[in-house]
Amino acid sequence: MFFKKLSLRKKKTMSDTLPCPKCGNEYTYESEGLMVCSECFHEWNPNDAPEPTGDEAVKVLDSNGNELHDGDSVIVIKDLPVKGMPKPVKAGTKVKNIRLTDGDHNIDCKIEGFGSMGLKSEFVRKA
Residue 100 and residue 70: Cα distance in Å, rounded? Predict the structure, then answer.
């Protein structure tokens, strides 16, 4: 007769897990040595130093690796199609007074002839 070997590992409870450093969600779980947030699906190593928060977390670089700041002027480096518009934003278009945000399109700006829009920093260079 075969008997199952009993595991003596302590089962983790919700109070033992770490909150997500990105969104602060307390419902996280361990997966293959990493902690995973059940809300934003951010993965991190619990043994590493915590990620910076606040102003330190937003560090946006342009296509040449220069750091961008709120209020900078940038130049678009390639034609960018705009959904719903018949023409693209042309390469060489200067965009003034940008605002940095979190997310995929990390630059909020107003472009003359197009209005308010979000740009990816990889398609601009600092003016």
Answer: 6
- Residue 10's pLDDT is 47
What is the CB neighbour count within 10 angstroms for residue 34? 13
Distance of CA 36 to the CA centre of its chain: 16
Kindly report the backbone phi and psi dihedral angles of residue 3, in degrees, each rounded to the nearest multiple of 5, phi listed first: -115, 140
SS3 annotation, the chain: CCCCCCCCCCCCCHHHCCCCCCCCCCCEEEECCEEEECCCCCEECCCCCCCCCHHHCCCEECCCCCEECCCCCEEECCCECCCCCCCCECCCCEECCCEECCCCCCEEEEECCCEEEEECHHHEEEC
Q: Are 62 and 107 in contact (CB under 8 A)?
A: no
Q: What percent of the chain has pLDDT over 70?
A: 80
Specify the pTM.
0.56
